[in-house]
Amino acid sequence: MEQQRLQLQKYNQRRLEYNDMLARDQPVMAALGKAVDAGDRDAAMHLYGQLSEGNPLRLMANDGYAAKAGQAVNNLQKIFDDKPDRAIASLNTPESLDALSGVFAPELQQRIGMPDSTGKKTIKEARIGSIVPAQQEGYVLIGLDLTYSDGSTAHKPVTEYGSAHPDDQTVLAVPVDKAVALVRDRSKFAEISKNYGYFKPKQQGLSAEQLQKGASQVAIKVAQDGGDAQGAVTQYYASMGLPQYQQKIQQQKIQQVITSWAGDDPDKQAFAREVASRQPEMLEPQNQKLLENGYANFLRIQKAKSEQARDDSAASASEFIRGLKQNYAQ
Predict the structure, then answer these.
(1) Contact 123/112 with Cβ under 8 angstroms?
(2) Burial of 209 (0-12, 13-18, 19+ CB in 10 A)
(3) DSSP state, 51?
(4) pLDDT tens across 218-252, in order?
(5) Contact status, residue 196 vs residue 188, Cβ threshold 8 Å
(6) Which of 87, 184, 239, 283 has the fewest CB atoms within 10 Å of its CB?
(7) Distance of alpha carbon 111 from alpha carbon 162, whole angstroms
């Protein structure tokens, strides 16, 4: 029971941190949307670089997301075009559920690592497995197909607080219009990213003079807004495909992750730096559980080494004292 409580506490803390991150990023996301609508690519690139590593918009800029989002929009449109029973049937095809799982991947990823009601296993994968009408008109209930750390599977409804706590039994009724609006917004963002090359390095080559001119324009604009001009220039050059600046951005992101995860703990900092040099992918948000497990193993190994060194030291001291006693007796 205590293990379950600690696991749930840790999971809830991670969800709170995710929600806090979204709240912090909200002004940036709003400004980013305006920049995209206005066609201001330089401003959009700068704002995109300010988003936190785990922000859903970063996932939406990935290849393949636009196709998933567009397909989901078309599927959800059936709710308005078809009869309700036919619409629900259409949404519950494997293709539609797969598309919706892709669109809501940021939310589904938040369930990874959540303990089940027994506290003996955690969620390894979560996908949307069903959509059924709620008793209240205009609302639906969502069921998740869950895969656990021990390989077992289950189909469970999304509850009010999204946890497996015994007291969290109220099934969440989702407003259809709100879900459709969210999917449309994400589809629009992803489609712009795909079609117009937002948030991706430009393919065309530019002269050094053109690059410098563009960097100067970015620096002036950001400085006028009271932002970090140097950081914006670095982000600009990275977006133009210059490897040294892309590497610098990557190093900055890694350091941010290390600082966020390790805090002031020197042991965690040392471990995270070692991970960054050997397996940087472990620092990605979706690999948080692997990172925690790796650190736990690291601590066990360090403890074993320390205990062995202490035993060896004690044995050496004992041998030294025996030698002194023998010499004194002589």
Answers:
(1) yes
(2) exposed
(3) S
(4) 888 878 777 788 888 888 777 777 777 777 877 88
(5) no
(6) 184
(7) 8
Higher pLDDT, 279 or 293: 293
Which is higher by pLDDT, 205 or 195?
A: 205
Say whether 110 sits in a helix, a strand or coil: coil
Query: Phi and psi at residue 123, in whole multiples of 5°?
Result: -75, 130
Q: Are 18 and 260 in contact (CB under 8 A)?
A: no
Q: Which two tokens mark 246?
A: 């892309």
Instruction: Check residue 92 and give its pLDDT.
Output: 82
Is 269 strand, coil or helix? helix
Encoding tokens for residue 115?
């303990």
Mean pLDDT (whole number) for 110-117: 78
Nearest to residue 293, comparing CAs of 279, 306, 305, 310? 279
Q: Name 219's Cβ contacts closer than 8 Å, sequence gap at least 6.
A: 229, 230, 232, 233
Kindly list the domain boundaries of the chain, sorted by start residue: 2-196, 260-330
- Are 256 and 53 spatial neighbours (Cβ–Cβ below 8 Å)? yes
- Give the C-alpha separation, 158 to 171, whole Å: 6
Burial label, 65 (beta-carbon count in 10 A; 0-12, 13-18, 19+): buried
Between 229-239 and 208-224, two packed helices, what is the crossing angle to 10 degrees?
A: 140
Give the pair of three-digit tokens for residue 57: 């918009």
Residue 125, beta-bridge partner list: 147
Highest average pLDDT, of 59-63, 288-292, 315-319, comes from: 288-292
What SS3 state is found at 67?
helix
